[in-house]
């Protein structure tokens, strides 16, 4: 049974959340992981600052949240650029007083192995996937310290753990670095009551994935998606709500002693 959408609750009531990459790279194709997380945080009672490289992409998510009666605010930022990230954190704190939850969702890929990946694409993937999280934490952690604690969730991937059929060397290594950075931050800032965990999605059926195959003829596209489902032991790919439900749990008090965890959300695909 596919996971259902996150229900309304008070699990994050009164919390202030920043979701980096809370828009979608394909707004026509259903909800992305980042959008679902922003919506799920709002449904659990959080006020959500939705950040995306395109303000319009963040605004789409904010409009959904507001239509449901939630509170959200859209900001544009390139998460790989220090001044943009500093501005997001400063604005969130000026507007709402503190940051309780930092959710780092942005991730890009370049298909290529160690020989054929151009240096510029290696650098771009690492800037967007790992330097971005370094920058977000650099500016958000001192604010969390001042507020007496907080929680950070980093979106990694099971591609950080093992070789996959398709060569994505820059992506794999950036996500593996993200796992380690997550655990180092968790260990160092535990005495400050700042928790840092990662979610490692497996194969997910998201608009971004559908975009990768959008130029295929319809029957071939169906075949590719069925092939992805068949590769998963549970007979289906994950959905954005599988990630969002895990994120709400990790952000909530239910996970108050869960720190430094690399939580696979992959239906046992990586075993
Ligand atoms: N879909 C899968 O199968 C799968 C599997 C494992 C992990 N993931 C991870 O999930 C995360 C993304 O999922 P998604 O569905 O939300 O993807 P997505 O690409 O639809 O959304 C990411 C958002 O980040 C934004 N973005 C891109 N570069 C940015 C930048 N430099 N600054 C600010 N915003 C930027 C995009 O505009 C987009 O709105 C990634 O970290 C990805 O690695 C996905």
UniProtKB/TrEMBL annotation:
Keywords for the protein's UniProt record, in alphabetical order: Oxidoreductase
Transmembrane segments: none
Family: Belongs to the short-chain dehydrogenases/reductases (SDR) family.
Record-listed E.C. numbers: 1.1.1.-
The keyword Transcription is assigned to this record: no
Protein species of origin: Ferrovibrio xuzhouensis
Enzyme class: oxidoreductase
Name under which the protein is recorded: SDR family NAD(P)-dependent oxidoreductase
Signal peptide coordinates: none
């Amino acid at each position: 049974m596919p996971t259902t959408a996150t229900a309304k609750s008070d699990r994050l009531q009164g919390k202030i959340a920043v979701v980096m990459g809370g828009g979608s790279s394909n707004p026509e194709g259903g909800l992305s992981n980042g959008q679902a997380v922003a919506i799920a945080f709002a449904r659990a009672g959080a006020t959500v600052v939705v950040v995306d490289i395109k303000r319009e992409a963040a605004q789409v998510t904010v409009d959904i949240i507001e239509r449901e009666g939630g509170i959200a605010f859209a900001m544009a930022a390139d998460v790989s650029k220090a001044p943009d990230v500093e501005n997001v954190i400063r604005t969130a704190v000026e507007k709402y007083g503190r940051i309780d939850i930092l959710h780092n969702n942005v991730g890009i890929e370049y298909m290529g192995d160690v020989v054929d990946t151009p240096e510029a694409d290696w650098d771009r993937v690492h800037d967007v996937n790992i330097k971005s999280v370094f920058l977000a934490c650099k500016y958000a952690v001192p604010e969390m310290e001042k507020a007496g604690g907080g929680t950070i969730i980093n979106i990694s991937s099971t591609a950080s753990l093992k070789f996959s059929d398709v060569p994505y060397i820059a992506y794999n290594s950036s996500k593996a670095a993200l796992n380690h950075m997550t655990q180092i931050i968790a260990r160092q800032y535990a005495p400050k009551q700042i928790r840092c965990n990662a979610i490692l999605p497996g194969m997910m059926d998201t608009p971004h994935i559908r975009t990768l195959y959008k130029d295929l003829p319809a029957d071939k596209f169906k075949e590719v998606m069925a092939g992805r489902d068949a590769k998963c032991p549970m007979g289906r790919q994950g959905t954005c709500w599988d990630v969002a439900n895990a994120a709400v749990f990790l952000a909530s008090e239910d996970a108050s002693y869960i720190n430094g965890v690399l939580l696979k959300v992959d239906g046992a695909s990586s075993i």
